[in-house]
């Protein structure tokens, strides 16, 4: 049929109304149970008119009294059951046969199974089964005692089983909701951890870029000021080199900021590849131009590395040499050693300088060493930094080649 869809079928309609009723029952249980009790009362009323008991007033009073406890059957199921059971026993003693009484007892038993403990369910089921025996003896037609007893016992069992199934289903749904909430919480926590790691990485990048570039620019500017009266051409060369390093620092800072501005397109011409082993020579040239003699020793062939691992080694050398310039007096020399073997990759930066004035012996302050240690740990390496016995400082990192190949 044109315009028909599965959503408009009778099954979907029933499911939709069932969901609405469950939602309403969850929000207003007393109102829903009151309406339910009224429906049961109206269901049993015709029986009282067709076959009125010997005492009509007592019959109507019991009819209503048996249904009133069902209003609080969810909040206090065993109490509601106890009241219904007591009234049903009074009905039996008075010899008043009410179909509504049977229904109320079964609903109360179902409520105990669905909303109370297993121990109370066993007690309630035993009481109902005793009532089944009493009702069978008093009201079953001659010759049908066994059939009536089996029928009523079956109804009792069905009410208890349905209630247990409902409780199991509700517990399962609660566990699913709890698991979903925990997974969502874990996902949020993981996102926070990733964000914190990214902030730490960006902070390390900013620290490395700014510290290295500014220290080189300061050294070149000081040298230019010193050389200007006697060698203007060398002063101009130093100023030009300082300007070039400043532009490079701006470009690298722009690359870092592009990571933060995820919705903004990177500025044209400012995005550069991350530095790696291939840029170490250029880095050392800058450092030498700033007045720090550096010896560079490489042993073996570098293994295949992830770009992030190359960046880690580059930043390690950069930060260590920056610390040499910051914390040692003029005339200090430095040595950078890279050793590649099948078993390990070692990076070592040493200097022969004494601490500069104001810097305690055996200690170099700042966040640089902590940042280096974090970078090295990302690739499973170990970093050691400390003074040498005969003066100077040593920074040493050791990696396994297999760790450097993985992308982090």
Protein architecture, described:
It catalyses: ATP + protein L-histidine = ADP + protein N-phospho-L-histidine. GO terms for molecular function: ATP binding; phosphorelay sensor kinase activity; protein dimerization activity. The chain crosses the membrane at residues 30-49, 56-72, 78-109, 121-139, 145-164. 27% of the residues are buried. This protein has two domains: 15-186, no CATH class; 275-408, 2-Layer Sandwich (Heat Shock Protein 90). Helix 1 packs across helix 2 (29-50), helix 2 (29-50) packs antiparallel against helix 5 and helix 7 (145-227) packs antiparallel against helix 8. The chain has helices spanning 10-27, 29-50, 56-67, 77-94, 99-115, 118-139, 145-227, 232-260, 280-289, 307-327, 368-378, 401-405; strands at residues 294-299, 334-340, 345-351, 382-387, 393-399. The longest helix is centred in the middle third of the chain and has 83 residues, at 145-227. With 408 residues, it is an alpha+beta fold. A five-stranded mixed sheet has the order 1-2-3-5-4. Strand 1, helix 10 (307-327) and strand 2 form a beta-alpha-beta unit. 66% of the residues lie in helices and 8% in strands.
């Amino acid at each position: 049929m044109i315009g028909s869809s599965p959503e408009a079928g009778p099954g979907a309609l029933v499911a939709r109304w069932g969901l609405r009723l469950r939602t309403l029952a969850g929000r207003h249980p007393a109102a829903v149970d009151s309406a339910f009790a009224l429906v049961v009362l109206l269901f049993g009323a015709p029986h009282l008119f067709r076959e009125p008991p010997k005492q009509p007033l007592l019959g109507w009073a019991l009819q209503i009294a048996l249904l009133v406890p069902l209003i609080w059957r969810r909040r206090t199921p065993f109490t509601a059951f106890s009241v219904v059971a007591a009234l049903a026993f009074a009905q039996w003693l008075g010899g008043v046969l009410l179909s509504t009484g049977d229904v109320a007892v079964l609903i109360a038993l179902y409520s105990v199974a669905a909303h109370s403990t297993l121990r109370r369910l066993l007690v309630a089921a035993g009481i109902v089964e005793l009532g089944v025996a009493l009702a069978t003896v008093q009201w079953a037609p001659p010759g049908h005692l066994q059939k009536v007893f089996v029928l009523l016992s079956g109804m009792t069992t069905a009410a208890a089983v349905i209630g247990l199934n409902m409780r199991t289903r509700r517990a399962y749904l609660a566990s699913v909701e709890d698991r979903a909430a925990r997974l969502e919480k874990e996902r949020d926590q993981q996102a926070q951890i990733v964000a914190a790691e990214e902030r730490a990485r960006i902070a390390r990048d900013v620290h490395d870029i700014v510290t290295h570039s500014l220290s080189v620019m300061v050294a070149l500017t000081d040298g230019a000021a010193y050389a200007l009266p006697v060698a203007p051409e060398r002063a101009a060369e130093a100023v030009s080199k300082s300007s070039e390093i400043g532009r490079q620092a701006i470009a690298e800072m722009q690359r870092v900021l592009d990571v933060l501005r995820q919705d903004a397109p990177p500025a044209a011409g400012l995005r550069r590849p991350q530095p790696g082993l291939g840029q170490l020579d250029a880095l050392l040239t800058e450092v030498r131009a700033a007045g720090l003699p550096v010896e560079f020793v490489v042993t073996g062939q570098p293994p295949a590395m992830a770009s992030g691992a190359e960046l880690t080694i580059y930043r390690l050398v950069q930060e260590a040499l920056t610390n040499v310039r910051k914390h040692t007096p003029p005339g200090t020399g430095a040595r950078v050693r890279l050793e590649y073997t099948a078993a390990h990759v070692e990076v070592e930066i040493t200097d022969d300088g004494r601490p500069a004035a104001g810097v305690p012996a055996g200690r170099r302050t700042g966040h640089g060493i902590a940042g280096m240690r974090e970078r090295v740990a990302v690739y499973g390496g170990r970093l050691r930094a400390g003074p040498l016995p005969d003066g100077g400082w040593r920074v040493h990192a050791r990696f396994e080649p297999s760790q450097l190949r993985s992308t982090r």
